[in-house]
Structure formats: C-alpha cells, structure tokens
Amino acid sequence: MEKTSEVLSGCMEKIKVSSAEIVVHGIKDKPYYEIKYRDLSDGQIHEGYSSYNLDYVFEWLEECFEIMPEKDADRMSISEQVKELRELADGKIHYCEWKKSEILNQAADAIEALSAKLADMERSAEDCGGWIECESGKLPDKEVICCDVCGEIIIGYIHETYESEQTGFSAENSHEYMYNCVKWMEKPKP
After folding, report:
1. Which of 13, 117, 152, 187 is 20–30 Å from 86 (CA)?
2. Residue 54 three-state SS
3. Angstrom distance (rounded) from CA 129 to CA 123
4. What percentage of the chain exceeds 70 in pLDDT?
C-alpha cells in the first residue's frame, strides 16, 4: 500500500527508532522498497512504509523517522548480537556493506561495555571487600578472617612474626595459632 498522502503532507509524529534502512523485495524489473526499522517504543523490528517508488520511501525515511541513540535497555541483547554475527558469518543473512559495518561496530561496542564492567568487577580486594595481601605496617588492629599459604583459614588477629624459624605474618585467636598467613579479609556483617 502506497502512502502518497503522507509523503505530500509529512508524518504527524516521527517514529523514534534506533536504526532504519531501506530493503528491496521483488524482482529485478519491478523492485519493491520498504523501510525496515527498530522501533524504540516496543524494541521490535518492523517493516513498512512500502512502495514501488523509491523516492517515496526515501522521503518517508526522512520525514517519518527519528534515529535516536539507544539506551542500554533498548539495545539488542548479547545473545541476539551473537546470533546475528554467527548468521552473518555463516552466510545465512545477507546485508549491504554499511549494514555489516554497523553490526560489527555494535558488537565492538558491546565488547567494550562488557570489558569495562569486567574491569569494575576486578577492582582491588580492598574496594570490594575481598582478600587483602598481608603487608608490613598495613595490618588491621581488629579480628579478621586470616588465610595461610595452604588455604586454611581462622578468625583472629594478624601480626608480624620475627622468630628465627618463622618470619612473615601469623594469626591467632584464643584457641589457634596460624603461621604463614598471607591474606586477610573483613568479617562479614551479621
């Protein structure tokens, strides 16, 4: 169905989309054009604004669509992106070169965003409440969870050891003594 009246009068309100492209169907002698777009209002991909007249379709693309930057929630999920990349690599879907470039750039953006999130997660142990290496002059003055070189743990107080046979850090409480303490962490709050 051709929407020539909309071409002449313009669209009432532009559709906010994250992407829009003209796709071609039909046969070589009689191509049929339509706009394929990802509507931000529902996150779905739609095809419409169709015509045998390419000029109409270009005008609808300009008059009826507003390409907006995607919010994280509006983006294609990682699994959807991976599926699309695999289909593209396997030749199951065919896009023009600029669309392939767009897909690869989106995948690169997703990888960068995930790398940044991973870097945040790999903050130092002090920042996120994990294990802290024992260091001279930087030992806690309260009871903490202590771990030795074998992975054994106790709850106790850490101190430096200056004995002839044992040097380094030790931990102790009223019942146990641990040599070769290498790391500690805060006790969890009840």
Report:
1. 117
2. helix
3. 10
4. 78
Q: Residue 72: its pLDDT value, please?
A: 45
Q: Is 172 helix (H, G, I), strand (E, B) or coil?
A: strand
Confidence (pTM): 0.37
Say if residue 112 is exposed, middle or buried (CB neighbours under 10 Å; 0-12, 13-18, 19+). exposed
The position carrying tokens 């990888």 is: 111
- CA contacts within 13 A on the Cβ side of 167: 3
State whether residue 59 is helix, strand or coil: helix
- Candidates 149, 159, 155; CA nearest to 180 is 149
Closest CA to 146 of 135, 161, 157, 162: 157
| Residue 90 tokens, joined | 């396997």
Q: What pLDDT is stored for residue 125 in this prediction? A: 42
- The tens digit of pLDDT for each residue in 55-75 reads 999 999 999 998 887 654 345
User: Tokens standing for 116?
Assistant: 């940044």
Q: What is the largest CA-CA distance in the chain?
A: 95
